[in-house]
Amino acid sequence: MSLYFQKILFIINKYNNPKKKHINKGDNMLYYFKVLIVYSFLGFIYESDIFKISSSSKHSGILFGPLTLVYGFGCLLLLLENKYLFSKIKLNKYLKLPLIYIIITISLSLIEWIGGQTLNLIFGIDMWNYSNHHFHLGKYLCLFNSLIWSLFGLIFIYILHPRLNKIITNITTKETHLILIIFIIDIAITLLTKLT
What domain range is 155 assigned to? Predict the structure, then answer.
C-alpha cells in the first residue's frame, strides 16, 4: 500500500511543481504571447535606431506603445516553423540550411506582405513602401530585403532566440497578464484614434 501512495504522490508532485508555475514553455499560449511582445519590442528598438540614423521622424509600428508587431509575428512564425517543420527535416546540414533559408524567405515575405496589406486595408497607410527598390513586388515586397530578413531569420533561430529564451520563460504569469492588459489597451487606443 505504501508503494502505491508513493507513486500517487510522485505523479501529483510532478504536475504540481510550484517552482515551475511561472515558466511558460512549449505550446503554452502565454509563452507565445511573450515571444510576440519581446520580439516586437526588439523590432521597435531596431527600427527606431534605423530611423535615427537616417534622420527620419517616422515612428516604428502602428501602435502607440514601443512595439513593431511585424517583427514579433515574424519571429513567432519562425519559432513555430523551427519546432514543427525545420526540426523534422532529415537532411545533412549542407542541404538542410539552404532549404530552411528558402522557407524562411517565403515565410517572412508572406508576413511582410500580409502586414503591409492589413495596415493599408484597416488604416489606409503604408508603413513601408518598396516601390522605388529594384526587384520589388508591389509596395510591400522587395527581393533584396527578403533575402536580408532571411539571413536575420537564421541568426534568430540558431543564435539569438536560444540566448533570449531563458529571459522570456522567466517572465512570470502575473507580469504576462499585466503586459497583455496594456497591449489590449494600446490596441483599443490605436483603433479608436487612428480609425476616426
Answer: 24-194
pTM assigned to the model: 0.79
Question: Residues 25-84: pLDDT tens digits?
Answer: 544 899 999 999 999 999 999 888 876 676 666 667 889 999 999 999 999 999 999 999
Q: Which residue type, as a one-letter code, is found at position 147? A: L
Does residue 36 form part of some domain? yes
Any domain includes 48: yes
- Rounded to 10 degrees, the C-alpha dihedral 51/57/60/65 comes to 130
Determine contact, residues 48/60, Cβ cutoff 8 Å. Answer: yes
Q: Does residue 105 contact residue 146 with C-beta atoms inside 8 Å?
A: yes
Cα–Cα distance, 153 to 81 (Å, whole number): 11
How many Å apart are CA 100 and CA 162, to the nearest integer? 17
